Structure formats: structure tokens, C-alpha cells
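Q: My labmate handed me this sequence with no annotations at all. I'd like to see what the chain might look like in three dimensions before we decide whether it's worth expressing. Could you predict it?
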Amino acid sequence: MLLVLIMMFNKNLEEKMEKKIIVVGVFVVDISVYSKNLPLPGQTIIGQNYIIGPGGKGSNQAVAIARAGGKVSLIARVGDDDFGKLGLRLYDEEGVNRKLLIVDKDERTGCATISIDENGMNSILVVPSSANGLTPEMIVNKKSSIKSSKTLITGFEIPLETAIQSLKIGREYNCLNILNPAPYVDVNKEIWSLADYVTPNEHEAFEITGIKVKNPEDAFEAGIKLCEMGSENVVITLGSLGAVTILNGKRGKHFLPPKVPGNVIDTVGAGDVFNGAFSLSITRGKSIEESVQFANLASSISVRRKGAALSSPIALEIEQNQTENLDWFYEI
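A: Here is what I predict for the chain of 332 residues:
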């Protein structure tokens, strides 16, 4: 009995001491349409179903962190409309701190249209709307919250100058800076040196480096080049091929996704789940290898259900898959 009480005390103490993560990103409402094939330019096809739900990379990452047991806040700009209210309800339900949200009464919340085929592959068009008005000055006004955080995550759905300002403030306060360069835009090389971890997928890695990534060997080459451009550490996600790590310009490891029951039905948001889980693990002091394994598992669970933010697994699901499957990850 005494041992049980001690374990409960230690768990409660760990929860109270959970280091905070801050995400600077976008909330949009996803309109996801499912069909056998993705339409070609100029082609009209009949779909099978559609879902309206919460999305936006930053928002998805924040929800993934909260569901996995992390303490997270989101800096984003939304409109005072039905779409924006959907986001506010989501954060209240999922445990994401929304005190840093900026609600603008004169603008509309963003929207994304997503087409998903029978293999779970997707194409996405995002209209950020109110999120385009997230300015560097607004981030400066949140400096005290960034200062009290352990980790900062941002990406390129917000204006580039705002992402850079966020990383600079994160660097000023010794945060672990994580940059998910999606969707990719042309940037000054300065930005890569502001991040401790850069996490592109294979398409973004190609756009950044000019190296076409078709397999893990290509990914290692692209990651090394990205380090030469100023990045400290790089994690390149490869969909069904898992992820590779490049540490301080040196080739790391290739991690295949774990074996998780069920079929892949929807890959929307899988990269966001990966980034959220990876960020949480790194924040908790785990190694980059352990964090990639953890993120691979979380994203592998998420693609076996529909939706973006709401496909994120909760902490108990991740723990069960870790303990029930001793071969839950593969390393090459």
C-alpha cells in the first residue's frame, strides 16, 4: 500500500512539474472529402463522404501534445465566427490553454479543403484568412509566456516574419526551438540556425535542398545539406517509410513505423501528430531517437482513424501500444 501511495505521489509531482510547450501556428476548419481517387485538374468525380472538423498545423500539434499528456498553449489568430468558436470549444475539451489566442471580430477564421483517396493519401488547400494577420508585434506581446515555456514550435502557415520573430524570442529565452517548415516557402538561410530541430517531410526537404527524396538514403543526404545550411538537427519524415535523423550534420538513424493493428485510412494530420508527439518527448528530456520512436508510434495510430486533430491518440493508447508490442519500433 505504501509503495502504491509513493508511486501516486511521484506521478502527481511529475504532472505538476510538466514543462510547458508553446505552439505558434494556425487554426482552420477542415472540410475533408473522401473519394476513391483524387480528382485531376479539370476533373469532377463523385465523392463518398465528407467531414467538417478542426484543423491547421499548429492547432493539430497543440491537440496532439495535450492528448499525449503535455502542457501546451497555442498562439493563433481566429475570427469571432462559428468556425472560431469551434476552435475554442476544441481547446476547452482537449486541455489546450487558449488564453494566448487572438480573436478578431472583423475577420473570418481560416478554412482548408482536403481530398482523401481510398489509400488515405491527400491533397490540401489552406486559406488562412484571419491567421494571416498574426504579426511579429503580437508575438512580442506574448514574450512573458514564451519565457516561461521549455519548448516553442512554429511553421510556415503563419506569415514568415512572424515565424522568425517567434524563433528569435524562443532563442532569447533558451527555449528548444522546433521548426516544421510546412507548407514550404522561400526563406532566408538565417531561419535554419534559429531552430534546434527542423522537421520537414520528404516533399519539403526536396524544396529546401533541391535533393529529391525517394528513399531514406536520399533523406540522409538532404538532411546533411540542410545542416550545412545552418540547421543543428534534422528529422525528415517519410510517411510509410518512417523517419530519419541527422544530428549536428552527421547521419543518424532510420526508424521504420511500428506495427499497429488496423489499416491506414486517413493520413491527414499525421505529420502534425508526429511533430506534437516528438516535441513533447524532447521537452521531457528524451533523446532524439527516443522521441522519433514515440512520434512514429503516435502518428501510426492516428492514420488508422479519420480526421486531423481528432485522430491524435491519447497517452494511454500510446502507452498500451508500447507495452503490448515489444517490437513496437524498428531501427535500421
